[in-house]
């Protein structure tokens, strides 16, 4: 790969930088607002963090000051070099978790007496993107290096045997995009004892995913599967790409008062927020991309939002109805913060065509609730409640062409048994008797199995 360099000044001018990375070229558009000659102050790299995502590796350099940087690639052996002007290293390179990344090692050296050179020795071909993030409430200046894996040619799946025209496309799965908030650079809210929202919500999301995976007729897909950040727009794009029937974002945020507690469900608001708490949480979430490290070029265009608003109303109506059913189920396992689905301008919910809800599983800032949120038992209960709420919506309104729609056409509502379900709870939920369900399904005993689909007779 040909060496490439992008240089700009950082000390005596104030620079606004737009970096657009393509496969092999960087375009650097720089506009300068000259503030006058400032004495060059040496910057320090105070910490280096590494996050591995399924398709890329992210290195983050925490800087004490703004610093000018440049980068280029070298071949034979393959290396990626980042030079930071007037910068020194005050962080160890030894503890970086390089396993599973294309980086064999990271070396540092001093260049021209005062500059820092970091060399990444690479074991695989990567596409790179380097950008500067401005300070926010949580972090200072950061230089972010993203190394995108070269796409591996995926083996073509074997065509499925054709059974019948019906089986081809009339019984598809209902696709649920499950979105664990925050991740990587963005820890989300913090609870007592260093409990992090990003970790708790990933655990709940993974439990929810397993439950839906066990429920025939549903296909869950996680928007993030580990500890790395995914931009909020990208989360929505992922849901759209997999043609999700529903997007469920899982959070456990903090509030200004530690006494605040309880679960709540949110949908998008096209106008204002329905409460001060809703507004506060939407505002908190709005800094997620800044902390998580989304390059300015990945951000939202205002035009997209305006267009989305126009076709949003029907989708929002569905979101509110699904949200109400999820809230009802959550009420059985948690105290509810509010009895109605609340609304605020959450960016992550702004899909025009995918109904989207955000579940605040509780306030991690409340010591008692935080303790509960960290336990597997409570996480399972929350996941079960969310799953049941979602299932009861799709049992009533199965999208055409799905297994659930087909079951409904057979003369009743189909309910697929998931772990933890009992016959008496199902009967109570649908307002029918246990004996009526047993009669409809030819059951002689009260035993049901995970994955079994039961026909629920009309009440
Ligand atoms: Zn959150």
Descriptive keywords:
459 residues, alpha/beta, Immunoglobulin-like, Aminopeptidase, Membrane-bound Lytic Murein Transglycosylase D, Chain A, 3 domains, 6-stranded mixed sheet, 5-stranded mixed sheet, 12 helices, 19 strands, binds zinc ion
Would you mind describing this structure in some detail?
- The chain is 28% helix and 26% strand.
- It is of the alpha/beta class and 459 residues long.
- It folds into 3 domains: 14-149, Immunoglobulin-like (Sandwich); 166-396, 3-Layer(aba) Sandwich (Aminopeptidase), CATH 3.40.630.40; 410-456, LysM domain (Membrane-bound Lytic Murein Transglycosylase D, Chain A), CATH 3.10.350.
- Helix 2 (197-213) packs across helix 9 (376-396) and helix 7 crosses helix 9 (376-396).
- The N and C termini lie far apart (68 Å).
- 38% of the residues are buried.
- The site of zinc ion has 7 residues, from loops.
- Zinc ion binds next to loops.
Summarize the structure.
By secondary structure, the protein is of the alpha/beta class.
SSE topology sketch:
Blueprint: E1 14-21, E2 26-33, E3 43-52, E4 56-63, E5 69-74, E6 79-84, E7 87-89, E8 103-111, E9 115-122, E10 126-133, E11 142-149, H1 165-169, E12 174-180, H2 197-213, E13 218-222, H3 232-241, E14 246-251, E15 264-268, H4 276-286, H5 288-292, H6 302-310, H7 312-330, E16 342-344, E17 356-360, H8 367-373, H9 376-396, H10 403-409, E18 413-416, H11 423-430, H12 434-441, E19 453-456
Parallel strand pairs: 3-7, 12-13, 12-14, 14-17, 15-16
Antiparallel strand pairs: 1-2, 3-4, 4-11, 5-6, 6-9, 8-9, 10-11, 15-17, 18-19
Helix pairs in contact: 2-9, 7-9
The structure holds zinc ion.
